[in-house]
Amino acid sequence: PTLRCNLNCSYCQVSRVDEDAIGFDWTPDTLEKLDRFFAEHAAKKIKIEFQGGEISLRPDLIRSVEKIAERYSNSIEIVACSNLFHISKDFEDLFKKENFFISTSLDGNDAEMMRNRTHNLAAAKRNIKNIRHVLDTYGAEKIAFLPTITEDQKKRPEELIKTYFDIGTSGIFLRPVNFMGFARKKHGEAKAGFHEWEQFYRRSLDYIYELNQTGYFEEFYVADLIRQVFGDESSALVDFRSPAWFLQNYAVIDFDGTIYPSDEARMLTRTRTVDLSVGSLGSGLDEDKIAALNSTAIHQINSDCMHCAYQPYCGIDIIDDLS
Question: How many CB atoms sit inside 10 A of residue 261's CB?
Fold first, then answer.
């Protein structure tokens, strides 16, 4: 609902704007259009995730969207993706709600947070203090953490994982800088060397194995794969299944009301790589374009996948393929 942000992270994927910028927030007119969209498309059970920009700048919009959703859905879960750089009283008032959760970025210790996100050590320390405040006050089930691994961090996997283990989480999702969007300008080399990433990942799993001699800690992605192979579960990642139908599991609505099949599709559109928008709150959904995307979102007919031994346990991400 807003592109305005109070940080300027090095790996930001979509064009954020300054905190005081005008014209980059949902308006009352946008909310009216959202109400009509929900009337037609909302499920009885719905999960709403607020991304940004920095949504903590507009807790009023979170409340407005929830009120709209309550008219059409019986069960609502809300996730606010926030950097937790600043916690206002209005924003923290939402933390007490049972259906409200937070997803935040934690790239490691305060030095790593300074390097990637705050560009100031005192600010990084405050950022981590706020993260610990949420964890200590509202519990581990209230907040989820996600790191973004930059080139320099590949040399120190144990340090990153120890930060997560010590803060009290039960796992970590290791992922490199997303090569989509504007992050590729500052971190173009992040995807250059697969072997560097493989070495980092193997070291990480070895260290996680050591931690699991006395506790429990998992790497989310490999755990997700293992559950698919041995537990016969579908992937927890909605954009990595087959068929990976777009506009059925979720939709992304941008600050201007434009609708996308995924956040990565929004990034590719913003960088003018390819227009993957599939409608807007004002005009409705472009069913023909959605059908065209869905016709290729099946790995059983993909030339790279159809003869692969791992196909039963895998998925397809055509947005990533396009990138």
Answer: 27
